[in-house]
Amino acid sequence: MKLFGTNGVRGIVNESMTPEIAMKLAQSLATYMNGEGTVVVGNDTRISGRMLKSAVISGLLSSGMKVTDLGCVPTPALQNYVKKSKEASAGIIVTASHNPREYNGIKLISEDGTEFSRENESAVEDIYFKGEFLKASWENTGNYKKELNANEMYVNDIVSLVDSELIKSCNFKVAIDTGCGAGSLTLPLLLKKLGCKTISINAQPDGTFPWRNPEPVESSLTELSKIVSTSQCDLGIAHDGDADRTVFLDENGKFLDEDLMLAAVGKFILKETKGPIVTPVSSSSMMGDIAKEAGVDIYWTRVGSIDVAYKMKEVDAVYGGEGNGGLIFPKHQFCRDGGMTAAVVLDIIAKNKMKVSKFRDAVSSYVNIKIKENIVDPKKVVEKIQKEISLSDGMLDINKTDGVKITCEKGWILIRPSGTEEIVRITAEAKNKTDAEKLIEIGKNILRKAVTD
Ligand code: MG
User: Fold this and answer.
1) Which are the catalytic amino acids?
2) Do residue 32 and residue 71 come from a single domain?
3) What digits encode the pLDDT tens for the residues 301-317?
4) What is the pLDDT of residue 366?
């Protein structure tokens, strides 16, 4: 049985994500840690956050752990606190990130602030399913304290890592939409400290997410777009529900593709610091292009920020991230870092005296097409493809890091099973639409053959 998905444990509140699950998971972590040390806990703005966090706290205390409660925080602010705090030995954040309102979830954080590795996750998972938890005697149950400076600490740490005086001197005007999520508690403060004039919408923490879904997609940012263009802002910034992801609108209110921003920001980072970069196999070839141009190595990992973060540590990378607005800056911390992403983009436009729309000229773009096919037992079908596929006409490389990625002369195809639905996803990328469509057809044929053979 699996408890952990790509990003922690998630489910619909009081159906597949209950206080019982939250408490057992906390007890499993405490048992894994032999009941010793301090666990830092926090939650995003979701309605069920306090309910689930209370269960987590209860489970930890019953096993003798000490608990420090940060209140409502973005995921990267909790990670930063765990990394910096001398007493913290782990963290638990109650969040369902960008998932719809009815969801919530739990993510485990290691002592150094990174997410739990896949190995450590499965060690905790084993304890969870065994159901034998450490129970402290009455006088040894843990103690609890609140610490309410994590958000400010996070913001101050970010400000110290960019050229804040230069950014201040630019007097940027920024429109923001934090979607009523946890970033409402950090992004306005960050921009204030960077001397920006800020127009905020949805900056009141509200777990009903009344005005848009926690996922910051282009179609849900039309209001922000209008504000940027009609108020002559330099840019628009939006976070997902737990503010580890950031997306941008240019000075005309136009959405900037996340894959493009991942690569374009990377290009500027590599100008200042040379070193390896890391990204999942699902990312655009633009990442390969910037690595090639800078003459540095690129490592392609499985899909998931955990895999990217650990590879980055292993190879001493200078930059990495996912094509969904989840950018990782080792000079701050090894995790998706929404606030840092916003500050770095301001730093880049200040230093290069450029408009935000100019990020589009930094890299040459591709056409990316994604489709889903309904397939029974998708994991088994993709494993079959992995086993049977071999290089044939027009194929240059087959990569089996995550699903099957086929590189061809005109682009690439990625075939991956969904972890939660009876679906196989096919992605294709090429320089133009015709080629991308052709590659999708090749992908479909490979899938069809695996199903019918
Ligand atoms: Mg998130």
Assistant:
1) 97
2) yes
3) 999 999 999 999 999 99
4) 96
Q: Is residue 28 part of a domain?
A: yes
Going by DSSP bridges, is the β-strand pair 197-201/173-177 parallel, antiparallel, or unpaired? parallel
Residues 46, 139 within the same domain: yes
Phi, psi of 178 (to 5 degrees): -90, 5
Per-residue pLDDT of 247-264, as tens digits, reads: 999 999 999 999 999 999
Confidence label for 453 from pLDDT (cuts 50, 70 and 90): confident
Count structural domains, the chain: 4
At residue 8, the pLDDT reads: 82
Residue 59: the pLDDT is 98
Ligand 1 centre from 97 Cα, in Å? 4
Q: For residue 86, is pLDDT > 90?
A: yes
Percent of the chain at pLDDT > 90 equals: 95
Closest CA relative to residue 214, chosen from 103, 97, 305, 106: 97
User: Alpha carbon of 410 to those of 53, 284, 395, 440: distances in Å?
Assistant: 49, 13, 9, 12
How many whole angstroms from 235 Cα to the centroid of ligand 1? 21
Q: Domain check: are 201 and 315 in the same one?
A: no
Residue 362 within any structural domain of the chain: no
Residues 398 and 438 in one domain: yes
pLDDT of 140 higher than 80: yes
Model confidence, pTM? 0.95
Interval between CA 452 and ligand 1 midpoint (Å)? 38
Spacing, Cα 215 to ligand 1 middle (Å): 8
Cα 438 to ligand 1 centre (Å): 33
CATH of residue 416's domain is 3.30.310.50
Task: Give yes or no for residue 420 having a pLDDT over 80.
Answer: no
- State the distance from the centre of ligand 1 to the C-alpha of 226, rounded, in angstroms: 25
- Asked if 58 and 23 touch (Cβ cutoff 8 Å), the reply is yes
Q: Write down which residue in 315, 337, 359 finishes a domain.
A: 337
Both 264 and 332 in one domain: the answer is yes
For residues 24 and 128, state if they share a domain: yes
CA of 73 to the centre of ligand 1 (A): 12
For residue 381, is it within any domain? yes
Q: Do the domain assignments include residue 428?
A: yes
36 and 131 fall within a common domain:
yes
- Residue after which a domain boundary falls, among 82, 114, 148: 148
Domain residues for 268? 258-337
The pLDDT value recorded for residue 3 is 86
